[in-house]
Amino acid sequence: MVRLRKPLPPYALKTPEGGKVYLPDLKGKPLVLLRSEALAQGLAAREAELKALEAQAYLLAQASRPSPLPLLLDPEGALLGAIPEGSVLVTDAFLEVYHLGPVRDEEEVLEWLRFVEAQCPECVLPEADWL
Edge-to-edge strand order for the sheet containing 71-73? Predict the structure, then answer.
């Protein structure tokens, strides 16, 4: 189950070419997963900003289709079902979920990525230490 401020579960997805992508293998860069092709087009047009933020963005779908961003397939819909239509999932480089919900446009996605970039996991006590 996908939850805010928790690590993204280790889903296995596919590439249109038939390869497998295990989400934990994407650690190391902030991650954006989205369902909207219009939003994917907007983010693809701002590729330089994504690169500057060292982020990776993917369009999720159940079946192969043309995509302005790299496409990841979720044939069973397990991860797609966790991301409501019109929403995006944004994680930090450790795949901790920071945003799972609607966004107005690609600028808001970039704002979330800037927010994630500004976080300092070493500067915050683990939740259990301050409860």
Answer: 20-22, 12-14, 71-73, 56-61, 31-34, 87-91, 97-102
Could you report the per-residue pLDDT of 13-37, keeping only the tens digit for each? 999 999 999 999 999 999 999 999 9
* pTM summary value: 0.89
Q: Please say whether the beta carbons of 62 and 49 come within 8 A.
A: no
Output DSSP code: residue 105.
Answer: S
Burial status of residue 111 (CB atoms within 10 A of its CB: 0-12, 13-18, 19 or more): middle
Judge contact between 21 and 101, C-beta under 8 A.
Answer: no
Phi, psi of 96 (to 5 degrees): -80, 130
In Å, how far from its chain's centre is CA 85? 14
The bridge status of strand 97-102 relative to strand 87-91 is: antiparallel
